[in-house]
Amino acid sequence: MRAGMILGAGLAGLALLAAALSLVWTPHDITQMAIAQRLQPPSAVHPFGTDQFGRDILSMAMLGARVSIAVALVAVGIGMGAGVPLGLIAAAHRGGWIDELVMRGNDLVFAFPSLVIAILITAVFGPSAINAIIAIGIFNIPVFARVTRGGALPIWTLDYVRAAEVAGKGRALISLQHILPNIANLLIVQGTIQFSLGILAEAGLSYVGLGAQPPTPSWGRMLAEAQTLVTLAPHVAIIPGLCIVLTVLGLNLLGDGLRDALDPRLKTLR
Amino acid sequence: MLGYLLRRMISLGLSLLVASALIFSVVELVPGDPASFMLGTGAQPETLAALRSQMGLDQPLPLRYARWLAAILQGDFGQSFTYKTPIAGMIAERMTVSLPLAVMALLLAAVIAFPVGLFAAARRGRIGDAAVMGGTQLGIALPNFWFAMLLVLLFSVRLRLLPAGGFPGWGQPVAALTALLLPAVALALPQAAILARVLRSALIETQGQDYIRTARAKGLSAAQTLRRHALRNAMVPVLTIMGMQFSFLLAGAIIIENVFYLPGLGRLIFQAISQRDLIVVQSAVLVLVAAVIAVTFLVDLAYAAVDPRLRRR
Amino acid sequence: MIETRDLAVTIGASRLLDHVDLRLAQGRITGLVGESGSGKSMTALAIMGLLPPHARVSGQVLLDGLNLLALPERAMCAVRGRRIGMIFQEPMTALNPLMRIGDQVAEVLRIHHRMDRQAALARARERLDRVGLAEPRFPLTLYPHELSGGQRQRVAIALAIAERPELLIADEPTTALDVTTQAQILTLLRGLVRDEEMGLLLITHDLAVVAGLADDVAVMRSGEIVEAGPTEALFRRRGHPYTRQLFAASRHVPARIAAGPGPGLDSRPPLLRIEDAARVFRLPGGRSLRAVDGVSLTIAHGESVGLVGESGCGKSTLTRAILGLDPLQAGSIRLNGMQVSAGNRMPHALRAQMQVVFQDPFGSFDPRWRVARLLCEPFHLTGRPPDWRARLDAALSEVGLSPEDAGKYIHEFSGGQRQRLAIARALIIRPALIVLDEAVSALDVRVRAQVLDLLVRLRRDHGLAYLFISHDLSVVRGIADRVLVMERGRIVEDGPAAQVIDAPQAEATRRLVAAMPRIPEGWIGPEQGEAASG
């Protein structure tokens, strides 16, 4: 498990590093097309080869990492920012109408997979990377609300919460002082999972044209463009796919490792 | 049991109502209404107004929603702007591809996940468990559409065993099933990986329960205990995940149809988006969401079938 | 006849059992007593061959000369449930919640013989009748959640004895049950041993249970049997110092003290006055449950009052209302003349006059806070005084802990120490009343005796009033001046502790007193009143 976590942190770290590096430097300039060098296999000059416009795939992949990570990260932020307070409030009023309202609202949002939300938004406002963020972010809200409520409910039955009530503390103060710190582990782990799911979802949305738009490179769009070329130059399709798999795998391994490291009680889960 | 059923049904109806209202109002946000879109930019104001009132677009929003809903309940989704044909028929035709694909994928995922999860749980902490769980980690990380491309590359391009895309129609059942095979595998494998992990952890969790110890003290072997007592108790979280997976599979099917050029709901939606045929998008999304809500309802019924404690409440 | 010889179990580097020799004859009851962690349950699991996978076991477990430890797993499965049956402590979770009770009992018969379902169910019916779950009230089609704890324990017994085993192992079978239910289950077990010629290994922490039931006793401490023999002789002799300590602690009564002017002599109005309190829960189907039904009581300044009753009698609900956690539907609770109300409507100054100590030493503290912050939490009511550091140190010292402990986390303390910390937390804002909700029930006897002594001393030093809630009359007797008995939401008896216990008036009290396990007076001998030590 230790080894898995180190591997996971390494892979995820690599993706982050590539994304950060792409802000200041990429091996080649991808705005320059070089048709003469199109679809070249990997070489010393182009470690991952070139695409149908002769652009360097390594540079494209680095820029793609930036979009994927930014979208997934913001979407996790939206999910946590709205979902965690909702979950805390529902748990604090467990059994009451507020709880019922939050949970039914959750169920309703669950009926709209992020792809469906993206379709709706695109139908109205047209496609963009912001769509992907909103669509994935909205779907993350009930996930975090549920995890938060599920983690908070057993804590509300514990005597230390009773003691805090006897010490005159209200629901909001108890939620902040006792509940939130005790479910922080849970949220960190869920955050990693949603981060990796967000990368997968962003790739899917970009692939079908509902996410990042040209000329912004993204892993999903690179795959969409590669689809017709897959028999001619397989590396064009394989490299972006591997980027996704390795980043997601890394995040999942990291999440599992964190789960074990942070909370021995959860060792058996998942 | 009856009370439980009744409450779930009321909840089902309410969810459908709210979801449909949401979808309706989102599409209402679109600048420009269907009438102006149908007539194009050069239309005369009088013609536009006439068409508007003919389509009922000059009426207040709640009323239009009520009419729209009433029509849908009678199976009338309206007409496509681009094709001028009833949408209900188009969607029904496309569903004959998307629904079998999603169901096939779900069955395939379950068929793969159950033996794998049971195997891993029974060998918990041993090398077999670690190997299988490592494999599922990889499975979860696979984007299904990329996996689909790889499958096409291997089975269609290199080995020439299966078609790379297209759909011959259900007139040729064998060819139709063959055409759906690779898409179903591409959809199912990542979901199977998730399901196997959930099953494993649910089994391990139940195996720590007191009644498992009681079963062992009765003289059941570890394997018998797993099959007879742990499995059924582990079904509750597994059912939850399977219900959620169905919605992922339906959504995933939309993407996968693009890889295999399948004439399913997904292709219809993307065509409609590019043609700004909003009423088709609206209808297709409604059908998708209704399917997801209906599956949630079925999962709730399955809970009650598994757990007697729910029936009494 | 089952015999363990030189049984030892190690997990990793720690030796959990060592040199355990037990002889368990058919038709005899052997009590295995000791404190938590002494290895009692481990012994049972070793006999059953159900030790955790990484445990290493040596020695012999002989079943009519056959060494079970050398038996392959398949053969051991044929022994479990057929020749040795076992029941566990927690009846609420011991049965499969998704399976009918008839099928759960029948399953034992079907796995050991190729019996068809109908025949097995017929036998299951007969076994359930034997344990007191007869038709038509208890059909085979019931699910566990439709039964009470005691009834579930009976199902567990029925399936353990379905095959008429030679030995039944009962691991704390009544610890999770009420005294009256405990008495019924113990009577059932005694009858089964007599009728079915079965041996019984009864594992318990309660010396009084063993005294009333067992033919032989083995006393266990840190994995070893320190003393064994026929029950009466062993109890009279108390040869080993550890046996003496256990014995003294389980009978320990803290020295009587007079706090305040004594009951009835205080001219001040009562500290706590409850009048006609009612707490009603709405149930599904339009019915309602009056969990607290017209309760009136008073507690004087400096008085210690015990509140006793079976689980479900409403004492926990009443406690929550007194603490201002739940609202009442009728009646009033007044603390020092001021109205107690639920939630944030209750003024902090009023809340500060009352604190609480809970049962569970493990759930009472936030694991992420240090002791200093935990103990200072009640200052939320009063504002943190400038001398809080000194008050914290004083509170820690008063409960026998050191000021250095303030920087530690809660997991660094034992169960008894945590209960001391809980008392310190209640004490730090100097309340007039401390509610002790089953505050010593989860503690081992020797630790319990120490905590009771501490409570008595604190009351004397600070003139505190206690409301001591417990299901255990013998504990209440040691600490309360006055005892209230609650049944079905009502107070059915109210009187001086000794009088209530020695001459109970109400039917409910009489049942409780009769069910109380006791060590016969004649066995106690000269060492009565010996103080708890260690």
How would you describe this structure to a colleague?
The complex is a heterotrimer of chains A (270), B (313) and C (534). Chain A is 72% helix and 0% strand. Chain A has helices spanning 2-24, 57-92, 97-110, 114-125, 129-156, 159-166, 171-207, 219-226, 234-262. The longest helix of chain A has 37 residues, at 171-207. The model of chain A is unreliable at 264-270 (pLDDT under 50). Chain B is mainly α and 313 residues long. In chain B, helix 5 runs antiparallel to helix 6 (127-141), helix 6 crosses helix 8 (173-207) and helix 7 packs across helix 8 (173-207). Chain B is flat. The mean pLDDT of chain B is 87. With 534 residues, chain C is α/β, with parallel strands linked by helices. Among the domains of chain C are: 2-83 and 165-250, Rossmann fold, CATH 3.40.50.300; 93-162; 266-346 and 466-516, 3-Layer(aba) Sandwich (Rossmann fold), CATH 3.40.50. Chain C contains 19 helices and 20 strands. In chain C, a hairpin with a 2-residue loop joins strand 4 (55-63) and strand 5. Chains in contact: A-B, A-C, B-C. The interface between A and B is large, with 45 and 54 residues.
From the structure above, extract its key features.
heterotrimer, A: 9 helices, elongated, disordered C terminus, C: 534 residues, alpha/beta, Rossmann fold, six-stranded mixed β-sheet, BP-dependent_transpt_permease (chain A), MetI-like_sf (chain A), membrane (chain A), transmembrane (chain A)
Rounded to an integer in angstroms, the radius of gyration calculated over CA atoms of chain C is 25 Å
The name of the CATH topology of the domain at 94-312 in chain B is: MetI-like fold
Task: State the CATH topology of the domain at 2-83 and 165-250 in chain C.
Answer: Rossmann fold
Name the structural class of chain B.
Answer: mainly alpha
Mean pLDDT of chain B: 87
Shape of chain B: flat
**The CATH class of the domain at 2-83 and 165-250 in chain C:** Alpha Beta
Transmembrane segments (chain B): 99-122, 134-155, 175-199, 234-256, 284-306
Main location (chain B): membrane
InterPro entries (chain B): BPD_transp_1_N, MetI-like, MetI-like_sf
Protein name (chain B): ABC transporter permease
